[in-house]
Amino acid sequence: MLKQPDRISVTHRKIWQIAGPMILANISVPLLGMVDTAVMGHLNAPHFLGAVAVGSLIFSFLFWSFGFLRMATTGLISQAIGYSDPEHHQQQLLQRTLLLAFFIASLLLVFQSPLSHLAFYAMGASDLVTHYGQEYFSIRIWSAPAILANYVILGCLIGLSATRSALVLVLTINIVNIVLDLLLVNVFHMAVEGVALASVLAEYLGLIISYRLLKIHHIKILPLKFKFSFKPDYELRRLLKLHGNIFIRTLCLMFSFAFFMAQSAKQGDIVLAANAVLLHFITFMAFFLDGFANATEVITGNAIGNKDRAQLKQGLTYTALWSGVIATLFSFSYYLCGPTIINFLTTIPSVITAANEYLIWLVIAPVIGVWSYLFDGLFIGATRSTEMRNTMLFSTLICYLPAWYFFQGLGNHGLWLAIIIFFASRAISQACYLPKILSNK
User: Fold this and answer.
1) ∠ Cα 420 328 249 (to 5°)
2) CA–CA separation, 155 and 184 (whole Å)
3) Residues 6+ apart with CB under 8 A from 177
């Protein structure tokens, strides 16, 4: 039986109680990537580093595309907290989403060979990088069941506003991964297979920890139950529709950044390298601000479940305030310290010069992009997946791609302008739905 958490009281302290642990959890992710790069970068051949870099990128895209398992679960669980009798509803949706996660993971394992060949063909890497990259892929793909299940359980913990438990889960996985990286590569003298195996072991240990965390919060998920019936299951249809819409939204987001990098590559190696460096600014900012988006998800879901418009408006006001403040600080930090950060990330003079030329766009990006991150949290908490899908399709196809077509004569400045227009169009189109969501219609 599930224990119903207390109704959320919206205060600035509560915002930080939810957002703070998630910020710490989120920023541990790029740290893991840095360690993977470092351990491979100290081996005696560059193709090891290239193989892990390409393989990690493929898995980032592959698993990120199933992020709807986390997001949808958070919205549904946080809404269920506001219902009068959430126990059966929560347990059923959690079990169904876990079954969906294991079904997807099974498909990935069954079709791992064609997936691997297609992915590395698309990357166009050298023969050596492809060989060792596929070796990395063949090991790490076995972490799929644990990763996708952990997505679901992480979403549940966030939805319960148990963000300290979520922090424990994420930090455990990443710290164990880092320790195993160093141990398997430096002590047992493994190469790419060591980094891949470290990820697999860390994710399955994380799955064990996540099961224990759910028990602490009085949540029982085993045994997983599935009942087949010829009768229409409207709740299952709603669940699949929610997942499907968020999946389409995520694919559009992935396409947008993949298109950005593809257009960067067409402008030459220096521009490509400079944009890759500058995207680290965007990534770090996004991981940080996602903590406030997580807080928005929880508060919005709880308010929707309670049909409490005052709580909904107050929660959005507080998270918007803190998101805006932090985004402004990012802009000032990038303006003052951007050149220093660039010098830390690369020592190639031509890349440093190019990155500094386009740094102004990274000063602008936080105060423009923050609102789409915040509204994502609002839409997830309100389970407005259709609107999420539509605003992303509009921003990608009607705003971003035409903007690049019209401004490509400006070169890389035109490309950065297009991505800023993409951020702005997402926020503006999402804002059009605010009156409807805030009135809880």
Assistant:
1) 40
2) 31
3) 32, 198, 199, 202
The span from the CA of 4 to the CA of 80, in Å, is 9
- In angstroms, the CA 299 to CA 10 distance is 8
| Rounded Cα–Cα distance for residues 384 and 376 (Å) | 10
3-state class (DSSP) for residue 175: helix
Tokens representing residue 233 in the block: 């299951």
Closest CA to 430 of 400, 399, 387, 401: 387
What is the phi-psi region of residue 268: left when phi exceeds 0, alpha when psi lies from -120 to 50, beta otherwise? left
Considering the chain, what is the average pLDDT of its residues? 83
Give the tokens for residue 440. Answer: 């809880």
Sign of the alpha-carbon dihedral angle for 213, 218, 220, 221? negative
**CA proximity to 238, closest of 103, 87, 438, 96:** 96
In 3D space, the residue among 204, 17, 154 whose CA is nearest the CA of residue 6 turns out to be 17
Tokens 């790029």 -> residue = 30
Calculate mean pLDDT across residues 182-200.
88
Amino acid at 219: I
How far is the CA of 175 from the CAs of 139, 143, 178, in angstroms?
20, 16, 5
pTM across the whole model: 0.80
Q: What is the pLDDT of residues 162-176, one digit of tens each?
A: 888 988 998 899 899
Which residues are CB-neighbours of 7 under 8 A, at least 6 positions away?
Answer: 81, 82, 302, 306
pLDDT in tens, 27-37: 766 666 666 66
Peptide bond between residue 223 and the one before it cis (omega within 30 degrees of 0): yes
